[in-house]
Amino acid sequence: MTDNRFNKQPPPAPGSRPHSVRLSQLLPGRRSDGFKLQQQEQTIASIYSPLPSGSHTIRLLDLLPGKWGDDINVRLQECTIAEARDRYISISYTWGEPGTVKQMLITCNRSRVPISENLYTLLRRLRRPERQTLVWADALCINQTDPSERTHQVGLMGEIYKNSKETIIWLGEEADSDDTGYRFLNEYITEEDSISMGKGAPPGVAWQGNDNGGDQRLLDAYLANSKKRGVRAANDIFGAFCLIQSFAQGTSSSALKFLEESELTGQYPYLPKTFLDPSSKASRVWAGLARLMSRPWWRRIWVIQETVLSRKATVHFGMLSAPWSMFARAASNFARERHSLCLDLAGTLRGHDILTQFSDLVLQIHDTRLHHQASVKDVTLLSLLWKFRPLEASDKRDKVFALLGLTTDWQGMPPLSPDYSADVGAVFVQTAIRNILMSASLSVLSGDLEATLNRKRLTDIPSWVMDWALPCLPVEIERVQSQKMYNASGGRTSEVSFHHRHSILHVQGLLVDQVIAVGDVSRHTQISDTCAVIRQWNLLAMAFEEKRGNYPSGCSYYDAFWRTLVGNLVQMASVANSIDGKQTAYRKTTAEDTEAFRAWRMWSRCISRDTIGRTASFTQRDLDEGISSIHYALKTATTSRRFFLTRSGYMGVGPKTTQPGDKLYVLENSKVPFLVRPHSVLNCNGGLSMMLIEPAGGDAGGLSNCCFNAHSCHRLVGDCFAYGLMDGEAFERPGAEVVALYLA
User: Could you tell me which Pfam families the record lists for this protein (predicted)?
Assistant: First the structure.
C-alpha cells in the first residue's frame, strides 16, 4: 500500500471543492469576465481596513493549522514591526507573469480570495497541523489596489525582512520529473518532523550547512543509493543539493566524485559531452542543478533586497531545504577553483556552464549581502542598477524601487523613496537626473541604450535616459564598470541643466569628429566569428593607414588598432573569494603587451581552425604569455559593439547602432566620449530649466529662469571608446572650443 504522506500531489480532502482558477478567466474581455474581475477586486478590497498613515504598522498572515490536503485558511492581523519582531516568517518568491499565472482560492478573513499557485504551494508547505504560523507575504499583506498604501509599505520592506525570524527563499514546488529523494525520508527525517508528518504535515529533508555530520550522512546515503540500478527522474534535485553541499565543504574532488562516469571510462568528468550518457547519473545531477537555477526566483529584482536584508535565509525547493550560507560557500569555492584550474576558459568540464551560472548568480547576491552586513557605506544607486540590470520585474518601476533600500551612499543627498503614482517613463527620467546630481557626472549616460533580445525600448523617454527594464549582456555590465579607468574630459566640469518641457539635457563639450566608416557588429558567439569580424575591422584600419601614415596621436595604426580592440586595458586578475565575490582589475596597456596580443592572434587562429571541438582551451604557457588577459579585455570591449573610423582618422568601438554621419563628442563631466546623431529642433517656450551641476564650488540642484529658446537637439547613440581621446587629449588640441549640446 502506498503511504499517502509521500504523494507529491495529494488529492483534495474528501468533500472539498476544487479551488483552481485561471487568472485569464478573471481578466476583462467579455462583459461577464469584466463583471467577474470587478467582483474579485471588491472581494479582495473587503478584507482590508486602512493602516494608520505614516506608521510602522504592517499586516501579518495568521496561517491557521491544517493538514496537507486541507483548504488554506488565513487571517490578517495588524501590528507594528517592533511588536512582530522575531515572531514571523518572511517569504521571498515570485508572483508569476500577470495574465498567465494559475490562481488558487484560499479563505482569508472568511472571504474566498485568489492567490498565485506559487504562493499557494508555499503556504501549504509552511502550514503545520498542530500550530498557527505567522507569515508576511506581500501579495496579501499589502493592499495592492491602494497605490498610497503600496508606496508606504514598499518603503518599509527593508525593516520587514530585517525583523523576521527567517526568510524562506521559495524556488518552487517539485514536478513529476524532479527527484527530490523521497527514498531517504524514513532514515533521515528528524523525529520532530516525523511526528508532525504523522499529524498531516508535508515531508521535508533539510541540510544544515555545517560540519555536524548530518549533511555528510545525507551525501553518504546518496552515494550508496546511487550505485543501485533503477529508473530515476530526469532532474536529480537531491543530487544537486548534495553537489552544492560538497562544494560548500571546500573540496572539489568530493564534489565531483559522485559524478564519476564509471560505466563509460571509470574517470570523472573531464570528457567531451559526446562521451556522456544522457540517462547517466552525472547527466541527471547536472539537469537537477539546471532545474534549480532555471526557477524564476533567480531572475526577479525584489529577491535581492529580500535576501540581502534577512538575518537568516533558507532555500526551499519542494520538500528540500538548505541554508543560504551553504549555497554561498559552494559558489565561492567553485569560483575560486574555476579560475585556478582555468575551467572557465577550457570549457571541458561537463557541468561548467551551469556551475558558472550558479556561482555568478549566488555570489552576485551574497556579495551585496556581506557588504550590507558589514555596514559598508559605498554602495551607490547607480552601481546597484548596473549590477542587477539583467533581473526582471513585473512592474518596470521596481527595477529602481527594489534597490532603494540597499543603497548606502546617497552621495550627500536625501534618499529616494518609491512613488507608484509616477509612470515608468517619469521614474526613469528622475532616476537619471538624480544620478547626475548625486555623482556630479554624466556616468549615468553610459551603457547600451538600445533594446536587446527582441525587447522594445520605452518610447516615451528621451534618448539619453536608460531604460532599466531592458536586460543586457553580463559583459556589458563589466564594460561599464571598467570605464573608471578613463578620464576623457580630463576632470573638467561645467554646468548641466534639464529643460522640463521636452526632457532636454543641456551639456557642454567638444565636437571632435564625424564617423565615416563602420565595421560589422562583433557577436562573440564563437572564436571563429570573432576572428572574422576582427579581420574585417583590420582591413578598414589598414585602408586608412595607407592614406594617412601615422595615427592622429602619432603612433602606428597597428598599435592603435590592437589597443582599440582591448579598450587600451588589460585584465590583471579576476579574483573570487568568499568576502567580495568576483572582482575584476584592469591596468592600461604597455608596449610589452604587444607580444601578448600577437600570441592571442596566433592562439585564436589555431582555435578557430579546430573544426572538431572549437573549445577555447588555454595552457599554462598561454596564461603566462598573457593571452587570457587579452582575450577577456577584448571580449569586454567589443561584444555586441561596432568598430568605427572618423574623418580625421580616429578609430574606436561604439554601440551596435553606430552609423556613418554620427558625431563624436567629448563631454565635460564625463569619463568617456559619446556618439550623437542630429535629431530635431525643439522650442522650450517657457519650460523651466533645473540646474543640475554647477562648476566646482557652486551649488547643485538650484532652479534657473524659464527658457524660451529653440534648440537644435541630438539623439544620444551611446558611449564609445576612441583611441587617443580617453584621457583629456581632446581639450589639449589647438583651437578646441567647448560648445553646448542639447540631447533629447
Answer: HET, Het-6_barrel
